[in-house]
Amino acid sequence: MASSSSHQARVPFPSDPAGGKPLDHEVPIHVVTEPSQLPVEFLNPSAAKQLIIGFDCEGVNLCRHGALCIMQLAFPDAIYLVDAIKGGESLIEACKPALESIYITKVIHDCKRDSEALYFQFGIKLHNVVDTQIAYSLIEEQEGRIRLPGDYISFVGLLADPRYCGMSYLEKEEVRALLRQVILPDIIVSFQYLQDPMFWTHRPLSEMMIRAAADDVRFLLCIYYKMMEKLNERSLWYLAVRGALYSRCFCINENNYADWSHIPPIPDNLTIEDDVPEEEILYVLDVPPGKMGRVIGRRGASILSIKESCNAEIFFGGAKGPPDKAFIIGPVSQVRKAEAMLKGKMVDIY
Description:
37% helix; alpha/beta; 350 residues; Nucleotidyltransferase, domain 5; Ribosomal Protein S8, Chain: A, domain 1
């Protein structure tokens, strides 16, 4: 049973069946430091009680080398802020069955770094993810809109879209502005003058921290249900496959993803169509040390040209790593095409 809480958040639900307007209601926000404070059906996933939750992580330089500080879980009736600092490894370990379970759908926006942190810091392989960034792109494609290579919807942009949430940018910007400040005794120092990279490590959690953490998940269930209404069967398969591939994207190690779950196969109902979807894969390409900048090109010109020529996503670890690798996700033929073009750029390097 979760502990009592004086914190609350307003959570929108999909719509009023009569009027079509979002339904808002207040839910408690619980700060969790012990497994017993989490719902039993979350700690013990089962086919009989399948769940859909909003999910996010906060931390310091969130990646394999950073520190995961908080996991946010949004249920229809409550938001749980799982405090990894005070609860420690045993608390996160108690969440592992749920985070790896097929019976609990985790709705998240851009899962790559969160998944990487969970994998390398706690050995958790995030599974059954619905990534709203991926879903947004699929809906845009369904509706005939063309997305430029590398143009991914931000969470703030998704919130502002009236088709999914319609929350004013100013409301979200208010919370973001709080995160650009550092609180010192009797002083508020602007972020542009003084940064606080350890913001999420401070304890006890301040009102600002609780509000900011809750804001990142309280809209996700509403967005999820609205997106599910729009996605056709083919797009739903792409969503499942790409969610699985994006989750493991930066989690490369010496076993080449052998310990991860299988990628969802093409459903039978899609194989009887004239236009059968092609299998999608993740391919990791090694780049010669110190040559990544030349592969990407000046102001990204080389990689942009490759992305425009291939129907595949290409990611790089960047400053957070993993370094000297390119991650290519997409249909097999397009991944191989991107691989060949990238290798062609490398030939020019030697």
